[in-house]
Amino acid sequence: MTAVLSPPVDPSPPPGRPLHAFPGLDAVRAAGASAVLATHVAFQTGRSVHGPMSGTLARFDIGVALFFVLSGFLLFRPFAQAAVSDRSRWPRTVDYLWRRGLRILPAYWLAVVACLLLLPANAGQRGPGVWLRHLTLTQVYSPGLQRHGLTQTWSLCTEVAFYLLLPVLAVVVLGRRGTAAGRRPLVALAAVAAVSVAWQVVTTRTSWFDLHTAGQWLPGYLDWFACGMALALIQVRLVAGGAAPWMHRLAELARSTGTCWGTSLALFAVATSPVAGPRSLEAVPTTWEAVLKNLLYGACALLVLLPLVLGPQHEGHTVRALGRRPVQLLGEISYGIFLWHLLVLETAVRVLHQQLFTGSWLLVFSVTWVGSVGVAAVSYVVVERPALRLKDRRFARGRRSGSSADQTSASAVTQSA
User: Whose CA is closest to 198, among 291, 278, 286, 276?
Assistant: First the structure.
């Protein structure tokens, strides 16, 4: 006999709040951006290699996994919703790509111009090829092209590659007719995730690619995006009804935030040890280390998001705390924190007269975080928010036709590190 469990998502949000708004995800955005900033400050001050907290600080690049899993969930969810409810609401590719472009490109282009022109380290290293590669987000595909203040944008290049591939992945996972029922979609997602393991093996055991370059490409991180896509598929099936019993059991687990986050923290502690590879950016990991670190980061991010997307959305102390307005504001400007923090960091260390691999991590982190938040707030008000308004005007007709799935897609964040 199959037990019938309660649905994980509160079907009746409070008045004035949209259904399935996932209020806790803003906190994930803010935490991910701050984690990325923290690990870059740790590298700058040498604390990612030396000191009692070096293992933890070096692994704060787990913020990348948070962003990739989050993007997989938010961007694939409209496709999964259409497959479950109404195939006619399948997101139009041109609409989807237009929204993605307006969300990320204006602020990114401004950051490229600012970093290439303002940072002294980039003087004499900004020829036409450098400009073209950075403005088109293709700098990650050629060794040695990433410039000061912009090295973190390797992950934005990878995420943009995922954006372009997602409509194809949706067809592969859900089928030509777009069905989310049965085992097929999850088997397809498992196959997509397996590509990452294969890519780690190829890049670490052969000389076919430059490891530091090819290791940043999309195939190495498809498993993180697939984790988010699987969460989206499970969430819409639970809400629509007809979910498998194990999905209901997973939803029950999601009701225990402490269990999910405690397990995530334990896995992160494993990742801070040498078994997950070297902490120095110059050192080359073994195949085992590369695969293990990738899987540990993906599992940690998955467990962080699990209670926020499958658990109750509008009840509990955790949800209320994460949904507070200051946290939401940080989440809204977190893309700017990601874009601008290295420019702020390089400016801060010059002002503080600190040499590379020296200085106080806490001091540099505090100055860089406050400065990045300030610059990000200006970027959001002056550049990002006006671009979002342009997106809404361009697709007013699409919204009238009932494309609410595209609206959900538009809320996904593009930050990474």
Answer: 291
Angle at CA of residue 165, ends 160 and 171, nearest 5° = 150
**Helix crossing, 25-45 with 63-84: angle to 10°?**
150
Can you list the alpha helix ranges (DSSP code H) found in 85-206? 93-118, 128-135, 154-174, 184-205
3-state SS of 227-284 is: HHHHHHHHHHHHHHCCCCHHHHHHHHHHCCHHHHHHHHHHHHHHHCCHHHCCCCCCCC
The average pLDDT across 172-182 equals 79
Q: What is the pTM of this model?
A: 0.90
Please determine, for residue 251, whether its predicted confidence score (pLDDT) is greater than 80.
Answer: yes
Cβ contacts of residue 239 below 8 Å, gap of 6+? 7, 9, 11, 20
Q: Which residues contact residue 146 at a Cβ distance below 8 angstroms, ignoring those fewer than 6 apart?
A: 139, 140, 153, 154
Say how far apart CA 333 and CA 384 lie, in whole Å. 9
More confident residue, 182 or 392: 182
Quote the CA–CA distance of 71 and 11 in Å, as a whole number: 23
CA distance 404 to 400: 9
Q: What is the per-residue pLDDT across 82-101, written as a single tens digit (0 to 9) for each? A: 988 877 788 999 999 999 99
